[in-house]
């Protein structure tokens, strides 16, 4: 069910409705600068829209809700795809070892497997593995982020500050088809390149 627009004033609401935008999900398909260029939509309306978008884990097109200590590029637009947003959140929360964000999006019996290396069962073991192997990341590029039903995949390249490179693909399985379903398991395929010496 679409999320209604916040109270942004009659001129801004009319301006949005004139272009067919009647929900926050529809707002998220537009860049902030495009909306600001429409007569009737001013900075105050944009500020109120941004607050409402963040409250519903949405953002303007080509923007993210993530503040990260590294360069983040690539396929970051989640539009009206909650599972794509969840996978992106998982990727960034794993990279920053953010326990709170991770615990909100994975099941307690979460399973993480890297074929040929290890299989961890349970959130606590997964989080301990992240903590034990935390690295300082220079950049993270998301090449593709796709979802369908109860499954999804995300792949990209992570470059550490020491120059080492990790190419990764994560295959996600969600607990159900629901939009707010948590991640039940992930199978990760990883290629590591220690970088030039």
From TrEMBL:
Keywords: DNA-binding
Gene Ontology molecular function, alphabetical: DNA binding
Segments passing through the bilayer: none
Domain of life: Bacteria
Stored InterPro entries: NTF2-like_dom_sf
Keyword Transferase: no
SUPFAM superfamilies tied to this protein: C-terminal domain of RNA polymerase alpha subunit, NTF2-like
Protein name according to UniProt: DNA-binding protein
Source organism: Staphylococcus shinii
């Amino acid at each position: 069910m679409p999320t209604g627009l916040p109270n942004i004033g009659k001129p801004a609401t009319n301006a949005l409705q004139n272009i067919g935008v009647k929900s926050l999900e529809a707002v998220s398909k537009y860049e902030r600068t495009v909306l600001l260029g429409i007569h009737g939509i001013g900075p105050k309306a944009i500020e109120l829209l941004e607050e409402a978008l963040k409250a519903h884990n949405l953002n303007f097109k080509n923007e993210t809700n993530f503040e990260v200590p590294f360069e983040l590029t690539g396929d970051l637009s989640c539009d009206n795809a909650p599972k794509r947003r969840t996978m992106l959140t998982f990727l960034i929360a794993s990279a920053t070892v953010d326990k709170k964000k991770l615990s909100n999006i994975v099941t307690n019996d979460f399973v993480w497997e890297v074929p040929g290396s290890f299989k961890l069962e349970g959130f606590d073991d997964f989080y301990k593995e992240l903590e034990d192997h935390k690295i300082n990341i220079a950049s993270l590029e998301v090449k593709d982020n796709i979802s369908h039903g109860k499954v999804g995949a995300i792949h990209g390249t992570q470059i550490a500050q020491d120059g080492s490179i990790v190419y990764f693909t994560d295959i996600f399985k969600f607990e159900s088809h629901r939009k707010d379903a948590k991640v039940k398991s992930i199978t990760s395929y990883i290629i590591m390149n220690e970088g030039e010496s």
